[in-house]
Amino acid sequence: MTKESHGFVVTSDIFNGLTIDTDEQDFSTEENFEPKLGDAIPQWKGEGIRGLWVKIHLAHSFVVPVCSKLGFDYNHAQSGYVMMTKWLPDEEENKLPEYANQFLGVAGFVLNEKKELLVIRERFSVIQSKPWKLPGGLADKGEDLAVTARREVVEETGIEAEFVSVLGFRHQHNFRFGCSDWYFICLMKALTTEIKHCPQEIAECKWISIEEYLSDPHLTEANKFFVQCYLNQQKNGGLTISPTLIDSWNKKTQHNIYAVHPLPKEFNPHHGH
């Protein structure tokens, strides 16, 4: 709910916090911002307000040192703004949530009709041997796993592929910028076969048999494990992890819930036995 409070236009939240968006404020007299905010903070504290958020747009960057002086700290920054926060209760631990601290990566385990695997060699790699790996990359905002997998595969290799299921995922910590990293491997069916790899990112790309890929001495342990996941799936009855669209709590949208389902018949070697 948006309202006026102690000279500011604020938005309240369900946790008894307030957000000040600098785009909603009157900055006709910038020099008055600091004393006005300084006066408002103890009044909000006395009213039981727990957390303050200030969304500072680029045009109002002068607010950053003001907020810093008044005890605010950085929460996160995005293109065009920085968010700063201040926790008000003295007797309670700071409960304001951190900003997003996880990366989401997706790779395509793409098989053609010959059951050959699509692999790439990156142009730039932290591993000196530049091993063959699966095409993939980071999910964009608002992307489902299947969408990311299809996009990354076609961007890097030129191959159109269809999402089938999740083979497995890795969760590691202390990744880029100290964040954690989720890395999902998606089983995919190739819809085209002609490779047209991206020369800016990819040095080489090819189809390879599973056996030849596993025999590569430079294959990472993680990719070796994901291949084994596929082989185990084929050997042990064809169960897989795939999404189902389920209504959200308010019925206004739907979300993917990933659970165990039978593998589609074209990928299930036991189908019809």
UniProtKB/TrEMBL annotation:
InterPro entries xrefs: Nudix_hydrolase, NUDIX_hydrolase-like_dom_sf, Nudix_hydrolase6-like, NUDIX_hydrolase_CS, NUDIX_hydrolase_dom, Pre-Nudix
A GO molecular function held by the record: NADH pyrophosphatase activity
PROSITE patterns, alphabetized: NUDIX, NUDIX_BOX
Alphabetized UniProt keyword annotations: Hydrolase
Domain (Nudix hydrolase) ranges: 101-233
Entry's family note: Belongs to the Nudix hydrolase family.
Name of the protein in its database record: Nudix hydrolase domain-containing protein
Organism: Magallana gigas (Pacific oyster)
